[in-house]
């Protein structure tokens, strides 16, 4: 494979930039910090997990509602990067502001977290859609997977720094309270995210788009309706979106709720941080491996592999009791979480017309976001009703079963849609 272009490298390095948010805010430090604040305020473990699940559901619902129309507007020439910039700044600045939320206000933490999630996922709508602008179809699987791989590698750096500060503060080796050390991790995340997004802003440009109309908003709604009718005409695209709706729900819920679930099992914050760090390290080569294997065995077959691994995760999680069990579970997730997301993105990018990539990725994201409402909500309600998060995790297996059943009806993309 020929060397990477400046646009390809800059696009891939945005994964390096924003993956710090994924591990520190979504998965590791913030959930632990929030759980500690909520517990101190008298909220039970199962209820605090449920409230976090509801918060994730609310944030993703917001994105699900605005994603398609934003994507449709951004398909106009010259607008994609402007929308990307807005949501990137919203997410990174809100992440920075987490450090200034009073340490006894768990509700304000969740509200601020919602804003960070809207910014993070909103920027990703346009980042994903830029894939059609930076590389040809035959390189999409590889570039998408390598982006995820770089993200896992890059995220370990601010994560190591954050873990070190938190652990040293916890042992009294530096003059910081553990809560202050956690807040410093939020600052590190925002600075890392902001700094490594600069190449994306400088070197990635919108190449495909539609001509602007005098009334952009009205025209966007007309085009959105037209795109919805088009998607229904493209049977392959529509069935893939249904499959994606189900299986990505399980993936996203397991990623976003894993730390809270581990805390409910009694696993110490130190062990959770170490496990999550190793998960990032292991996930990096596996994400790249998925991209290489997709070139040999096809992306669809590798999606089957990833979904099957997650089904095993759901079953294993139900019987999990010890820290060793959580280690095994985390390593299983590490083998497939990047691969399944990367190949889903490139699979879809190969199906859609390039000049309408944002419109179609708006629907790609609305299917993913509405799915992400269902999973955390299911886990949260189950935790509330049973007092045991394990039942919620196990129930996610039905999502993977339905997802793989629909995916079986989708052929490998072998022709460009025009």
UniProtKB/TrEMBL annotation:
Pfam name, any one: ATG22
Transmembrane segments: 12-34, 54-76, 83-101, 107-127, 148-169, 181-201, 237-260, 272-290, 302-320, 326-348, 360-383, 389-408
Subcellular location: Cell membrane
Primary location class: membrane
Residue span(s) of domain Major facilitator superfamily (MFS) profile: 236-418
Highest taxon in the source lineage: Bacteria
Membrane topology term: Multi-pass membrane protein
Sorted UniProt keywords: Membrane, Transmembrane, Transmembrane helix, Transport
PANTHER family named among the record's database cross-references: AUTOPHAGY-RELATED PROTEIN 22
Protein name: MFS transporter
Record organism: Sporosarcina soli
